C-alpha cells in the first residue's frame, strides 16, 4: 500500500484542572503557549515547524481528545478518507478546512479502539528556531504510546488502514507481547502500542537537543518537584534515552533524545525480552521497572472512546 502518513503533528488532551495543566506545559515542561481562547490552548515546541504539539482543553472529564498526523498533500487527505471509508472505518468528519492554528485541510475518524485520529495537509509552518546548546526545552514532539486491551488487533488496524510498519516488539515471559513499536518513516517509532487493561494514553514523548540538554531538563523537573516515574536511562528498542514524569493530571510524559533512525530497506523487527537486564535500560541507571510504574502507565480509563471531542 502507499504510505501516506508523514509525521506526528500533535496530541490533544482534555482535563478538568485546566489552569494547572497549562501552567505545567507552558512552564517547567518548556513548551510555548501560542494562543488561548476560552478554555482551550495551543502549545508549540520552539524547535518544531508544527503550529502546536499539544492542545489542552478544559473539560469535566480527563480524556485523550485526539492524535494528529500529517500527510503530504490535500490529494493524500482525500485518498486516505476514501480508503478508510471503503475499509469500513467510521469517519467523524469529511475532508475540509481545519479550523485550528495554521489551518490546513483534513478530517477526523475513530481508530479500532475508539480514539479520535486527525489527518491533515497544507498546515502553515510555524516560525521556529534552532535550539541552542544547553537549552533544555523540547525541540519537537517525538512519539506517542497508546494502551490497548488487544495490542495485536490495534497493530493490525494501524498497519492495514494507515500504513504503519512494525519496527520492534517487547516481550515478557509472563505477559507475552507487551509493546509494538510502529513507524511511518525512518524514525524507529512515531507510535507504540502497549498491552493494557483498557484503552488509554500511555505516554507522550518530547525530543530534546542532545544528551546534555536531556539531562538538564530531567534535572530541572526534579528540582521543581515534578514526580519522576522512571529514568534516566536508555532503552534498547529505539536506542533512545528516557525519563518519564507525571503531568498534573497523571498523564505520563517523557523527555528523550537520539531515537534511532532505520534503513527501511534492510531493517528486520526484533523481539526483545524486557525481563533481561539491559533491555529496558541499557545503562542500568534508571530505577527498576516495577508494577507501580506499569500501573501509572496504564493511566485512567479514557472516557473519550468513540466520543468525538467537541472541538
From TrEMBL:
Residues 7-122, 140-258 form the VOC domain. InterPro entries: Glyas_Bleomycin-R_OHBP_Dase, Glyas_Fos-R_dOase_dom, GlyoxalaseI/FosfomycinResist, VOC_core. It comes from the Bacteria. Pfam families: Glyoxalase (PF00903). Signal peptide: none annotated. PANTHER family: GLYOXALASE FAMILY PROTEIN (PTHR21366), METALLOTHIOL TRANSFERASE FOSB (PTHR21366:SF31). This is Oxidoreductase. It comes from Streptomyces griseoruber.
